[in-house]
């Protein structure tokens, strides 16, 4: 499969890139390198340096590559920072996420994997957290991830 990994220069994204390549997939990393690291990108992957906020670039990148799937790890993820600057998190994690979702639809991408977070559950009433646990985030980071989860349902 041809897979685009948004945020493929980050900790989780780069591990997924390595796994995918080791299992025979053709991988393209799309990353701004704002929080990711170029050295973390597997040398066997294609690399597009870009920010999901750049709508035209992500639309073009997905449109010309005929990807079978997209894995989305490109998000800001510092809870404390999200409390100090919530707009940064909603712009990056949600507004820029819309650009990736639109690119997936326009590019007719069949599979989409989104890396969310347990922060969408806030302080759960009981453990362990299950699919039935109510989602009630207590910080902008968790809220921004939950918003994109909801958008995915509508885009589906």
Features:
156 residues; alpha/beta; 5-stranded parallel sheet; 5 helices
Please, could you describe this protein's structure?
The protein has 156 residues and is an alpha/beta fold. Helices cover 42% and strands 15% of the residues. It has 5 helices and 5 strands. Helix 2 packs parallel to helix 4 and helix 4 packs parallel to helix 5 (140-155). The chain is globular, with a radius of gyration of 15 Å. The mean pLDDT is 97.
Q: How would a textbook summarize the main sheet?
A: 5 strands, parallel
Strand order of the largest sheet: 3-2-1-4-5
Computed CA radius of gyration, to the nearest angstrom: 15 Å
Question: How many β-strand stretches?
Answer: 5
The mean pLDDT is 97
- Low-pLDDT residue intervals, each spanning 5 or more residues: none
Strand content: 5-15%
Shape verdict: globular
Q: Give the termini distance in whole angstroms.
A: 20 Å
Distinct helical segment count: 5
Q: Give the SSE order as H and E letters.
A: EHEEHEHHEH
Which class of secondary structure composition applies to the elements? alpha/beta
In helices, the fraction of residues equals 40-55%
Secondary-structure map:
Blueprint: E1 2-6, H1 11-22, E2 26-31, E3 46-49, H2 55-65, E4 69-72, H3 79-84, H4 86-106, E5 111-114, H5 140-155
Parallel strand pairs: 1-2, 1-4, 2-3, 4-5
Helix pairs in contact: 2-4, 4-5
